[in-house]
Design brief:
- The chain has about 300 residues and is α/β, with parallel strands linked by helices.
- It has a single domain, classed as 3-Layer(aba) Sandwich (Rossmann fold), CATH 3.40.50.
- It has seven helices and seven strands.
- It has a seven-stranded parallel β-sheet with strand order 3-2-1-4-5-6-7, sandwiched between helices.
- Strand 4, helix 4 and strand 5 form a beta-alpha-beta unit.
- The radius of gyration is 21 Å and the shape is globular.
């Protein structure tokens, strides 16, 4: 696949593929995002917390998606317009497009040293970074009524789901602002925060999770306001009820609620749904939407009587 060119006044195409870091991409929504970006021609840094085997599976899926996309863009040698084909000129052969790279990086986002090392390792491995997708997050180990919930669970979720991506963004943004600003992405470098409908929907049996996602939503707004003047767009993608490992334990409950109309579109969301949304944002489909919130929830957010 040919590199994405960066259009716009005063900009020039950069002859390389864009590089994206997707946190928490060994499974679930992050894997769906990584695979979609691979299909779009990105090199992807696959971040994982501890499951190396799952990260390797994501790497394989990214490689396969990139190859399928590459094959689909090759001209069909069997196509004929009815006219005799002209022999190609000796120097007319198109250069072979760059090949995307996919590498896995381990790190605990709640650990400041690990966050710093993650940023350093990704920049070192790829030489640059064009997009950060803050997707990693955890659910509470035990769902508990807020009258009974522990401070330990609250601290764990806030550290991983809010503090981690907030300060990882700081690590990346500092490097961007200290170095060259060119990027192959249309409209320049971008950051996406993947939050949740729990950022605004109260669940009293997992208040810690709701608090962490509400904080993450504010982080997206803060970084959008700070970085837009620097030419870096920041967005929030807000998934709804998603069919992933995180929801496997409550699938029966939500199957029934969806059947009763909780989601107007009448189905679970998928990692591919979220991946397509993130891909559209990074490919430059929303160049004048800094800080925009993009719901991927099948209509869950629609106020209804």
């Amino acid at each position: 696949m040919a590199p994405i060119a960066s259009p716009g006044p005063g900009s020039s195409p950069v002859g390389r593929l864009p590089v994206a870091l997707v946190t928490g991409s060994s499974r679930g929504l992050g894997r769906g995002i990584a695979v979609q970006l691979a299909a779009a021609g990105f090199s992807v840094a696959v971040h994982y917390a501890g499951n190396l085997e799952a990260a390797r599976e994501t790497l394989g899926l990214c490689t396969a998606a990139a190859e399928r996309a590459r094959e689909s863009r090759r001209p069909d040698p069997g196509f004929s317009s009815g006219a005799a084909p002209e022999p190609p000129a000796a120097d007319s052969a198109a250069p072979e497009p760059p090949t995307p790279r996919f590498e896995a990086f381990r790190g605990d986002l709640a650990d400041p040293a690990a966050r710093r090392a993650l940023a350093e390792d990704v920049f070192s491995a790829f030489g640059t970074l064009d997009a950060l997708v803050n997707n990693a997050g955890i659910a509470p180990r035990v769902r508990a009524d807020i009258l009974e919930a522990s401070e330990e669970s609250f601290e764990e979720l806030m550290n991983t789901n809010a503090r981690g991506p907030y300060f990882l963004t700081q690590e990346v943004a500092r490097r961007w602002l200290a170095g060259p600003r060119d990027s192959p992405l249309p409209g320049g470098r971008k950051i996406v925060f993947v939050t949740s409908i729990s950022a605004r929907t109260a669940s009293v049996n997992r208040g810690d999770y709701c608090m962490s996602k509400a904080a993450l939503s504010m982080a997206a707004k803060l970084w959008a306001a700070r970085l837009a003047p620097e030419g870096i767009l920041v967005y929030e993608v807000r998934p709804g009820i998603m069919l992933t490992d995180m929801t496997s334990g409550v699938k029966e409950k939500y199957d029934a609620l969806i059947a009763q109309g909780l989601v107007p579109q009448g189905r679970w969301g998928t990692p591919e749904d979220v991946g397509r949304a993130v891909r559209a944002l990074l490919e430059g489909s929303f160049p004048f939407s800094a800080g925009g919130v993009f719901d991927v929830d099948g209509g869950f957010q629609i106020p209804r009587l």
